[in-house]
TrEMBL record:
InterPro entries xref list: Aldolase_TIM, His_biosynth, HisF, IGPS_HisA/HisF, RibuloseP-bd_barrel
Protein name: Imidazole glycerol phosphate synthase subunit HisF
GO cellular component terms given for this protein: cytoplasm
Gene: hisF
Subunit structure: Heterodimer of HisH and HisF.
Length: 259
């Protein structure tokens, strides 16, 4: 049985670590480079870095910050935000990232998934899905809709259909973020997580809503996720990654421990 991964997420705006609730009201809370190093030392399995305003501001990702983080940690490092071309992907890989996360750009130009998989391998291509719960309709039969640009633009695309499609195009992993749960610390959207996990053949990272270590246990057991993305509960010092993993291990979840 593979170990379940705990992945801190660094949302970065103007070079600063930031956090919001349901993609709104972001406040700057620290230095992403120092924070990445701290999480690496605590036993994080991977780090995810999102330049959260790059797409909406129509600019490229801040490669200098990517380079600084890559020099600081020695675990897999995924980068997203503002990546819209194969050249962008190559620049991010060149700056030290092991994985590229595409979200808004993939919705607007799905071919970028196939291009990235062909150039770097499917294992390097993560598709981020920002999902909002809506009424079920003929167009959205699952009741979950894809939104982009930080949740500001509804796309009329069914989340389950999109998840299957990105795997067909070459995605090696899905990062599934519930906007309804994001930053609330009330737990992951387990129905959404299980729905996607049961219908795709690649690992799914649950994202949005972690507030206690039990929420991570639920994400990887009830939700079936391969990994849990976390932010607020470690950014604000409520738990360390070591404490989270200790708790998960006590609940019978296999995790990688380095202490």
């Amino acid at each position: 049985m593979l170990s379940k991964r705990i992945i801190p997420c660094l949302d970065v705006r103007n070079g600063k670590l930031t956090k919001g609730i349901k993609f709104k009201g972001n406040v700057d809370i620290g230095d992403p480079v120092a924070t990445a190093r701290m999480y690496y030392e605590q036993g994080a399995d991977e780090i995810v870095f999102y330049d959260i305003t790059a797409s909406s501001e129509h600019r490229g990702i801040m490669l200098k910050v990517v380079e600084e983080v890559a020099r600081t940690i020695f675990i897999p490092f995924s980068v997203g935000g503002g990546i819209s071309t194969l050249e962008d992907m190559r620049a991010v890989i060149g700056a030290g990232a092991e994985k590229i996360s595409v979200n808004s750009a993939a919705v607007k130009n799905p071919e970028i998934i196939t291009q990235g998989a062909a150039a770097f391998g499917s294992q390097c291509v993560v598709v981020g899905m920002d999902v909002l719960k809506v009424e079920k309709t003929q167009a959205i039969p699952s009741g979950y809709e894809i939104v982009i640009h930080g949740g500001r633009k509804h796309m009329g695309i069914d989340a389950l259909w999109w998840a299957r499609h990105v795997v067909e195009l070459g995605a090696g992993e899905i990062c599934l973020n519930s906007i309804d749960a994001d930053g609330t610390k009330n737990g992951y959207e387990l129905d959404l997580t299980r729905l996607i996990v049961d219908h795709v053949s690649v690992p799914v990272i649950a994202s949005g809503g972690a507030g206690t270590p039990q929420h991570m246990v639920d994400a990887v057991t009830k939700g079936g996720a391969s990994a849990a993305l976390i932010a607020s509960i470690v950014h604000y010092g409520e738990y360390t990654i070591a404490e989270i993993k200790d708790y998960m291990a006590q609940q019978g979840v296999k995790v990688r421990r380095v202490w």
